[in-house]
Amino acid sequence: MAEAMIAGLLRRQLVARAQIVGSHPRAARREELQTHYGIRMVESNREALAHAADGEGATASASIVVLAVKPQRASKIMQELRGAVTPVQLILSIVAGARMETIASELSHPPVVRAMPNTPAQVGQGMTTWTATPEVSERQLAEVRALLGALGREMHVENENMIDMATALSATGPTYIFMMMEALVDAGVHMGFSRHVAEELVIQTMLGSVMFARETHKHPAELRNMVTSPGGTSAEAIYQMEKGSLRTVLSKAVYAAYQRAVALGRK
C-alpha cells in the first residue's frame, strides 16, 4: 500500500521524487523501489524520519510520515521512532486497527491521521476513509486530502470507529469482489468457456455494471430489477442466490472483518 501511495503521488505530480524518502529492511527491496520510482530508500526508519526532518528535498514543515506496516510490527516500529518525530511533522497511519490514541501515545506526538485505503489505489481507483486528531492543522488536513486523493477517492469521517467499519467494507471489499469474480469465472469454465474468455466476460461485466451504477445513481435493487424479467434467467439466478443465503454470507463476512479490525486495535 505504501508503494501505491508513492505511485499515486508521482503520477499526479503532487511531489517530486526527491521529496520522498522510504525505508525497508531488505536491500533487494530498497534497490527495487529506488530504481523503479527514483526515490531515496534507506534501511533505518529513524534515518528516513531524520531525512524528512532535515528537509532534504522538501521543507520540514510539509513532511508527512507514513506508517505503513503490518499491525503485528506497529508497536515495535513506534517504539523505535519514539522521540524522533519533530513537532512540525504529521503522522499518517494506514496500520489496520491501530487507534490514533495509541499511536499518539506511543510516539509522544499528538498530530495523527488514521487512514484506510484499499488495493485498487495501486491503479488510482482506490477508496480511502480517514480521520484526524484535533491537533492536526487545517493546512495538514488539506495536504492529507490531496495525498489520499492521488490514490482515487477519499472520504473524511469524524468518528474513528467508522475507520474500523470501512476496514471491513471498503478496505477488505476487494476480497469479496475478487472471490465473486473467481466464482463466476469458474462457473463460465464449467459451462465450457476457456478461462481466458470467461475472465474477459466477467471482468468487463463487473466493470460496466459498477460504472453504470455510478452514472445512473440508482439504488442497486432498482438496477437489478431493470434486468430481471418474470420467469427469465435473472429471476432464476436470483432465486438460487437467495436460496443459498448469499446476502447473509456477505453480511456475516463483513461483520467478521469489522470485529477483527476492532480486535487488532485492542491488541
Descriptive account of the structure:
It is a single chain. It contains twelve helices and seven strands. Mean pLDDT is 91; it is low at 55-62. The chain folds into two domains: 2-157, 3-Layer(aba) Sandwich (Rossmann fold), CATH 3.40.50.720; 173-266, Orthogonal Bundle (ProC C-terminal domain-like fold). With 267 residues, it is of the alpha/beta class. The protein is elongated and about 65 Å long. Strand 6 (126-132), helix 6 (138-149) and strand 7 form a beta-alpha-beta unit.
What kind of assembly state do the chains in view correspond to? single chain
Radius of gyration from CA coordinates: 22 Å
For the biggest sheet, the summary is: 5 strands, mixed
- CATH superfamily (homologous) name of the largest domain: NAD(P)-binding Rossmann-like Domain
N-to-C span: 22 Å
CATH topology of the largest domain: Rossmann fold
Per DSSP E runs of 2 or more residues, the count of β-strands stands at: 7
Which structural category do the helix and sheet elements fall into?
Answer: alpha/beta
User: What percentage of amino acids are in beta strands?
Assistant: 5-15%
Number of domains: 2
Q: Bin the helical content.
A: 55-70%
Average residue pLDDT: 91
Order of helices and strands: HEHEHEHEHEEHEHHHHHH
Helix tally equals 12
* General form: elongated
Which spans have pLDDT < 50 for at least 5 consecutive residues? 55-62
Strand order of the largest sheet: 3-4-5-6-7
CATH architectural category of the largest domain: 3-Layer(aba) Sandwich
> In CATH's first tier, which class of the largest domain applies?
Alpha Beta
